[in-house]
Amino acid sequence: EPEVTQTPSHQVTQMGQEVILRCVPISNHLYFYWYRQILGQKVEFLVSFYNNEISEKSEIFDDQFSVERPDGSNFTLKIRSTKLEDSAMYFCATTRQDSNQPQHFGDGTRLSIL
Amino acid sequence: KQEVTQIPAALSVPEGENLVLNCSFTDSAIYNLQWFRQDPGKGLTSLLLIQSSQREQTSGRLNASLDKSSGRSTLYIAASQPGDSATYLCAVKGGADGLTFGKGTHLIIQP
């Protein structure tokens, strides 16, 4: 069964550094999402992306965050200047045709900010 | 603002039992509800999705029901097995693109 693939599985970064998390969506999927899960807390929606632009973003997704699909395959989340509170699991998810279909998640990237 | 609550937070039962996990949500204006399974250190595996017009969905030993008007869903697991041990997450989709998640039920099936 096709999968959403995320790299790296674990990223350790110094506070203030930029970090890029990568996701390869399922090939015929059109909607892409990023979520995060701080340890012990709920999974939280960050942003949705469709037709090469942001469809929606939450209040968590401030100016430090950006998303793009630079080469038509990878879908990336960039955090410009990381803070300690950015430490979390970051999940990429995709849906096939519209946002009312099941969302399929990758295994996540564990981001640790030192 | 949509809030999703899952009860119980943790559950430990002997193998073979049938069990029910509960999910409630505060805003009944949803498009669908999705149940996920999360294993330690792993991503979320989609189990079942119920559209707002549906009452239930079944997949193997799993059955999920939805009562939209009362803001409730249940996940029924029949004949539980040790391999069912995981955290089960409920998530609803409202008018926004993103899902709103509950905190999950941590399930342990004792051999």
Helix content of chain B: under 10%
Count of alpha/pi helices of chain A: 0
Order of helices and strands of chain B: EEEEEEEEEEE
Helix content of chain A: under 10%
Low-pLDDT residue spans of chain B = none
Total number of helical segments of chain B? 0
Number of strands of chain A: 11
Distance between the termini of chain B: 41 Å
What is the first-to-last residue Cα distance of chain A?
36 Å
Work out the number of β strands of chain B: 11
Q: Round the Cα radius of gyration of chain B to an integer and report it.
A: 13 Å
Per the principal axes of the C-alpha atoms, what is the gross shape of chain B?
A: globular
Q: What percent of residues of chain B are in strands?
A: over 45%
Largest interface: A-B, 29 and 24 residues
Overall 3D geometry of chain A? globular
Major β-sheet annotation of chain B? 6 strands, mixed
Query: What is the quaternary state of this protein?
Result: heterodimer
Secondary structure blueprint with pairings:
The complex is a heterodimer of chains A (114) and B (111).
Chain A: E1 5-7, E2 10-13, E3 19-24, E4 31-37, E5 43-50, E6 53-57, E7 65-68, E8 75-79, E9 88-95, E10 104-105, E11 109-113
Parallel strand pairs in A: 2-11
Antiparallel strand pairs in A: 1-3, 3-8, 4-5, 4-9, 5-6, 7-8, 9-10, 9-11
Chain B: E1 4-7, E2 10-14, E3 19-25, E4 32-38, E5 44-51, E6 56-59, E7 62-67, E8 72-77, E9 86-93, E10 99-101, E11 105-110
Parallel strand pairs in B: 2-11
Antiparallel strand pairs in B: 1-3, 3-8, 4-5, 4-9, 6-7, 7-8, 9-10, 9-11
